[in-house]
UniProtKB/TrEMBL annotation, chains A, B, C, D:
Phylogenetic classification of the source organism: Bacteria, Pseudomonadati, Bacteroidota, Cytophagia, Cytophagales
Keyword vocabulary terms for this entry: Ion channel, Ion transport, Membrane, Potassium, Potassium channel, Potassium transport, Transmembrane, Transmembrane helix, Transport, Voltage-gated channel
Annotated membrane topology: Multi-pass membrane protein
Domain of life: Bacteria
Protein name: Ion transporter
Main location: membrane
TM region(s), chain numbering: 21-40, 56-74, 86-105, 148-170, 182-203, 209-228
Keyword Cell cycle set for record: no
Domain Ion transport: 21-230
Localization: Membrane
InterPro entries the record matches: Ion_trans_dom, VG_K_chnl, Volt_channel_dom_sf
Source organism per UniProt: Reichenbachiella carrageenanivorans
Length: 272, 272, 272, 272
């Protein structure tokens, strides 16, 4: 790997140098700005007045991101691995629509996919402060995955059965025209979103809906309890010590003796 | 009990053998697929185009589930107990509608009850990973049942009284045509679902509704607090033992020696 | 106090004897049944068909509750204190409407106040199981009252200011006809109820509404956090021991010496 | 600083003397009353009947608040610092609109800004009881700021991408006329507000919306978990000290002797 490659790699992928941080910040601003342009382009009024200007700005951003994409490939120690990685694919996908709209007419509607480039801001999570926070959240969610799957499975079953029942009770004339639509209504209801585009009209339907609402209102406590208790268990584990004799981990930090080998512990007072 | 019965029993009810797991997984796929067919059958457009195909698929699934049902009965050590168990009844109920629709015209609307067969997927919870998660959730909910009943009772009273008041304040011309309907509105409001099919129009009604909303928004904290604190208390209790020598409590249950007095612990490995 | 008074008192106010429990349960059933009649009476269809029957049932319940009310007064050691207590007033108020409707025409609309007699079911909380749960909930809510008031005050201010801003941004033509109505909208939005009877139409209004929604979504975490941490702090306090030497309370139950007088503690292993 | 200045300062800024508390309470009542007048003035009916009276009341309040504002300036040890402080600016801003409406016609619509003077009630938080609660809430939120930013960033990305997808799926004819409007819908949905002014009509849109709703329903657990675990970690940290002899941690901070080794603790009474 050449010296100039290493230099570029440090700036683009790293975040320890000043240059690296300035690059990250500029990229963040550029991504957000380009997504804003995509969003505003979809507003009819603005498109008619500033359409030309916005297309020019879009081309500038696409040009910059193209250079960045090439720089990432050439500076990467294993270019193919980068190209086929999730972030590499997102980087490429956020460039393609602009080029496509140049060559083919009618692909403009596709060009809104460019707003998916917002996913790229997650790179900035490399910034250490937030990495810690993100890590803890991810750990808590991962640690409670079994309970979350059980919970989600139960909610899915409730929603399918409630949807079927409402299809039977209310029927097509009240908006419950099919079971999938009724299930959609049940999801709208149990998550307490409640659009009101479909709502029960009969007394039996309203009674069944009431039960579903109260259920939804009460069981929101379950995922909350899962995540909270997982987070706190994780937090507690952080405050533990390790035996220097046998290497046993996760000892409560009030321990005077190792719970595994019974050797006396020297509890350094400065440990966090 | 004969050998072939034991063999079948192992596959159908067990999950320790490879055959048992393959069976469970196939059953899961079959149940979900058959429920999907029931759902799609209720969509008018699809029914008109693929009605015949979907009825054939349904008969195939019903045939397979019938074989499974018979296999469960013959391989069960106590067939009658299985038939009268909750799961046994669900198994039977999910077969009947298809046969009924064959013999009687007009029972087709009943046939959507087949989607209740989704309940059968809960068998798969036998898979150990999820069993643990489900167990913990159930324990937490059961342990806090008194508080949940008190909470639900209080919410019920609030909802009835709020409904009555709104019936008085708003009256029939604004959609609050009867007390049951007003109570339905109160449930829609306190659970923060908020369809908007019935909404207060007068200034007094809107004030009363505001109070109810804030109440609903605030008291969601109560079930959450109940379940969370119960879950954490359970988590703490499950994981600890007490030293019989010095009385030190809250020792991690993998402990071989007391962390306080270093005496050896007789840690029965099977304690829960 | 005479013997027969004591006997009645035991049955009506007590819950230790079998007679007392049977009375409580009968009362619970009677209250719920009578409130159901009040509710159904407000449904036009039912009123026209079964109006006469329901009025008779109502008179039977009123008669029974009147007897109960008199029995409570005569058996009470201090009748005046009972009559002027909250529950005494509720008991009386739930009787008056029926008698009023007999003497005065046109007071029938007032008679729905009878459904307030549902408050009377809270007597049943005397039943010990639920008393514990209710007590813990009440303690947790009372212990965190300062934080809850601060939270509610902050939400009130946010709602008033958001309402004023939306009145300026959207104005009367989009449904925000006055500041009180805009505040009503803000409450509907921040509590995530979202009826949709009033909704922002302009791009600025929708942006402001988005901020309010995200705020409401995020700060629901605050009351939940308050109540949960209070509940767990309360739960932890339950697991403490008291020094038999100096009477110091709330010692962590791993204590070997009193933290106040340094006397050795005999940590009885069976304490809860 | 003169004696009379000190006297005024004590009453206006202090809360230890009776006069100071009476002043605080009067101010609280005056602020709330004046904001109520602003609110009621915006109601057309009331404005037509009591417009004159309300304007007089407004002038009385403005006069009183002007005196208060001058008193704050003259009694402040560093007047310029007060004037340029956040609270000083709010104090001034809540006076200006009334004077402006006197000199210029057409600035009346601006006068609703007066309701922003509600912010001034936060001064009352000086009252010690609530200060503690507010402090704890602020500490918990500040301590978990990194996690909250990560969470908010993730939600923002989800909302932008979901909005773009719905714009593609549903298109303008179903109300999703532009990406910003679709993002507004995504926020309304993920926060479970659900106005229903825009709602998906196609089967694909409803499926995508269902996923977004369930996501919103599930991830509400994350901020709740963050705040709750932070609050409890804070609560634990505030209340404990460590023995300098044996290193035992988590001792209640009223401890005079170590609960493990009984050595005397030097417990500085002012430690937080």
């Amino acid at each position: 790997m050449k010296r100039w490659q290493q230099k570029i790699h440090e700036v683009i992928f790293g975040y320890h140098t000043t240059a690296g941080r300035v690059f990250d910040l500029s990229l963040l601003v550029a991504i957000v700005a380009s997504v804003l342009v995509v969003m505003l382009e979809s507003v009819k009024d603005l498109e008619q007045h500033y359409g030309e200007e916005m297309r020019i700005i879009e081309w500038v951003f696409t040009f910059l991101f193209s250079i960045e994409y090439i720089a990432r490939i050439v500076s990467s120690p294993r270019p193919l691995k980068y190209i086929t990685s999730f972030m590499g694919i997102v980087d490429l996908l956020s460039l393609i629509p602009t080029y496509l709209s140049f060559f083919f007419v009618g692909t403009h509607s596709l060009s809104v996919i460019r707003s998916f480039r917002l996913i790229r801001v997650f790179r900035i999570l490399k910034l250490t402060h937030f990495m810690g926070g993100a890590q803890q959240l991810a750990t808590a969610l991962w640690g409670s995955r079994h309970k979350i799957i059980v919970f989600m499975g139960t909610v899915s079953c409730i929603v399918v059965i409630a949807g079927t029942m409402m299809y039977l009770i209310e029927g097509g004339q009240n908006g419950f025209t099919s079971i999938p639509k009724s299930i959609y209504w049940a999801i709208v209801t149990i998550t307490t979103v409640g659009y009101g585009d479909i709502a029960p009209q009969t007394i039996f339907g309203q009674t069944a809906a009431s039960i579903l609402m109260i259920l939804g209102y009460a069981i929101i406590a379950v995922p909350t309890g899962i995540v909270t208790s997982q987070m706190m268990a994780d937090a507690r584990r952080l405050g533990t010590i390790t035996c220097s004799n046998c290497g046993e981990e996760d000892l409560p930090n009030r321990s005077r003796f190792c719970l595994n080998c019974a050797s006396r512990l020297n509890n350094p007072p400065d440990q966090k």
